[in-house]
């Protein structure tokens, strides 16, 4: 079932490019749609299976990293009975069936307004910055590094979480001013720890996680991981067999879509073009492959 829009009779908490979250009091229902964005714009058609991949992959990582630090996952919505524990649900309500597999119940947290980015490889905006002035996010780097090269050690490069406009890089003093010294240190240490763990694991499944973005929140005075975790939407996944230093790397999930969009001659301003059947199919296949390779499980249904 392809889901582009959700409209549940609940209070909307947040609607992002891909996910819709609903307010359940001290919890949230987070729903991953099949919407796909490229060049920062949502495409007019969806990608079958993508919502489930994002939802289930986040849940997979939340479980795996739970011994490093707590997170907001309470449970995945695997059937409507589970959902009935948190909101009124008619038995087998067909209007809610689409939630199964693509949604989770999470603890509502007091969100820290920081995007905790960790970079293990020199790519994207970090590569641009390094090329211009030899610096990555206030850190002077050794000379002679090449595009997509592994960094001597992973860098924590936090940014603001802007309500509107672009996220701005934050230096250590700015982060400490925002969340306090103790919490700033905890954010850095935990972010790097989660990234290091995930990157080692992903490598055994044939993926490089070049960088990733996490969010943290506070529940009952404790720091926990929130939002999504180590999905293709929040991280750069590269196929290890195609990795080559000295050039930009194809993103495993979205590159065919990006290449196709460029080939159509689209000028990257709205509206985005309708996607061809072939490119939808190929992108869907890529997302499912990320899920299969990382978790070792096939995705059931779409
Ligand atoms: N457990 C939680 N408690 C409170 N807020 C949360 C929790 N988990 C995630 N959030 C917040 O909910 C929002 C989820 O929004 P979502 O990621 O779907 O859209 P967005 O970040 O506004 O846009 P984008 O599509 O660019 O990611 C974010 O603001 C995130 O910080
Ligand atoms: Mg987001």
Chart the SSEs and their pairings.
Blueprint: E1 11-15, E2 19-23, E3 27-32, E4 37-38, E5 41-42, H1 50-65, E6 73-76, H2 80-84, E7 103-107, E8 110-111, E9 114-121, H3 124-133, E10 135-136, E11 139-140, E12 150-156, E13 159-160, H4 172-179, H5 181-204, E14 207-219, E15 222-226, E16 235-239, H6 255-264, H7 277-295
Helix pairs in contact: 1-7, 4-5
State the main characteristics:
2 domains, binds adenosine-5'-triphosphate, Phosphorylase Kinase, domain 1, five-stranded antiparallel beta sheet, binds magnesium ion, seven-stranded antiparallel beta sheet, 302 residues, D-amino Acid Aminotransferase, Chain A, domain 1, alpha+beta, 7 helices, 16 strands
Give a written overview of the molecule.
The structure is a single chain. 30% of the residues lie in helices and 25% in strands. Helix 1 (50-65) packs parallel to helix 7 (277-295). Strands 8, 9, 12, 13, 14, 15 and 16 form a 7-stranded antiparallel sheet that branches. The mean pLDDT is 96. It contains 7 helices and 16 strands. The protein has 302 residues and is of the alpha+beta class.
Which topology of the largest domain does CATH recognise? D-amino Acid Aminotransferase, Chain A, domain 1
Give the averaged pLDDT, no decimals: 96
- The CATH architecture of the largest domain would be 2-Layer Sandwich
The largest pleated sheet is described as: 7 strands, antiparallel
The CATH superfamily of the largest domain appears as ATP-grasp fold, B domain
The helix/strand order is EEEEEHEHEEEHEEEEHHEEEHH
Binned, the helix content reads 25-40%
Q: Would you report the number of β strands?
A: 16
